[in-house]
């Protein structure tokens, strides 16, 4: 994967979003679906759809492009680890994998030169989202420092996240914070525009996002909160206005494990 041909200068301070007239955010009253396991026609009423950067946008109103900015994607792990071993956290000469996703390696954000090289690698992915017609990018695994065996710090990842915000805004797209409630304030200051959360009801942390962001899209899972508790949460005060429940593998309706439910608008 080429690392040349992109500006890699990191911002001196937090990345400022462009004028609000140039940024479109998801509609707080529109239906939402999270389709990272594969694209399919969205359920009735869904206008906001998140898909992987390798997929085409749904085109139902507002499209969010998933970019794994802090870990490798499974299909690319071996290639990146071989061609750019310095950009992957190494322990004992071996790439460090996410314990929950062992086919994903952690990107090494520990120094400014490494962050510059990662920015040069990820920028074409973000630009590709814009070229496909996506309205926003969500950058995943902001919290990779928590599973880095001490090789990364929260400051490393916040610096990397600020660079991703700058690149995304330069592409004309909004950027979503994906999880990481403990760093929501510095990310909001770094220019993040809205939030996508997983299990914020389950972990009682929704307010850490809703207090900062105008739009919060929450996904709860059948194997965590469960459908009955989800129905109760839909009736609770203070929940994110946009909240859905999905199967944890995010499979398509063709799979028997598929599940989708949304709180009433």
From TrEMBL:
Which InterPro entries does the entry link to? Aldolase_TIM, GH, GH114_TIM-barrel
Please state the span of the N-terminal signal peptide per the UniProt entry. none
Q: Which Pfam families match?
A: Glyco_hydro_114
- Region of interest called Disordered, as start-end residue ranges on this chain: 1-30
Name all Glycoside-hydrolase family GH114 TIM-barrel domain ranges: 32-250
What PANTHER family does the annotation carry? ALPHA-1,4 POLYGALACTOSAMINIDASE, PUTATIVE (AFU_ORTHOLOGUE AFUA_3G07890)-RELATED (PTHR35273), ALPHA-GALACTOSIDASE (PTHR35273:SF2)
- How is this protein named in the record? Glycoside-hydrolase family GH114 TIM-barrel domain-containing protein
The species is: Mycolicibacterium cosmeticum
Q: What is the lineage of its organism?
A: Bacteria, Bacillati, Actinomycetota, Actinomycetes, Mycobacteriales
């Amino acid at each position: 994967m080429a690392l040349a041909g992109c500006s890699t200068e990191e911002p001196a301070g937090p990345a400022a979003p462009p004028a609000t007239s140039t940024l479109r955010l998801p509609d707080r009253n529109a239906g939402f679906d999270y389709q990272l396991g594969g694209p399919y026609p969205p359920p009735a009423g869904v206008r906001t759809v998140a898909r992987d950067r390798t997929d085409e946008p749904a085109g139902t109103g507002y499209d969010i492009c998933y970019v794994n900015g802090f870990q490798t994607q499974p299909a690319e792990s071996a290639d990146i680890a071989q061609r750019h071993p310095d950009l992957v956290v190494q322990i004992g000469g071996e790439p460090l994998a996410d314990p929950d996703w062992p086919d994903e390696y952690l990107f090494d954000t520990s120094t400014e030169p490494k962050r510059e090289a990662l920015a040069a690698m990820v920028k074409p992915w973000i630009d590709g989202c814009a070229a496909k017609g996506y309205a926003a990018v969500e950058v995943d695994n902001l919290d990779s420092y928590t599973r880095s065996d001490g090789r990364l710090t929260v400051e490393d990842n916040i610096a990397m996240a600020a660079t991703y915000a700058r690149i995304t805004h330069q592409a004309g797209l909004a950027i979503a914070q994906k999880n990481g409630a403990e760093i929501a304030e510095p990310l909001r200051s770094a220019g993040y525009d809205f939030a996508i959360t997983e299990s914020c009801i389950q972990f009682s942390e929704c307010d850490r996002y809703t207090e900062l962001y105008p739009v919060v899209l929450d996904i709860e899972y059948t194997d965590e909160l469960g459908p009955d508790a989800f129905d109760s949460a839909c009736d609770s005060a203070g929940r994110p206005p946009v909240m859905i429940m999905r199967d944890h593998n995010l499979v398509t309706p063709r799979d028997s494990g598929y599940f989708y439910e949304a709180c009433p608008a």
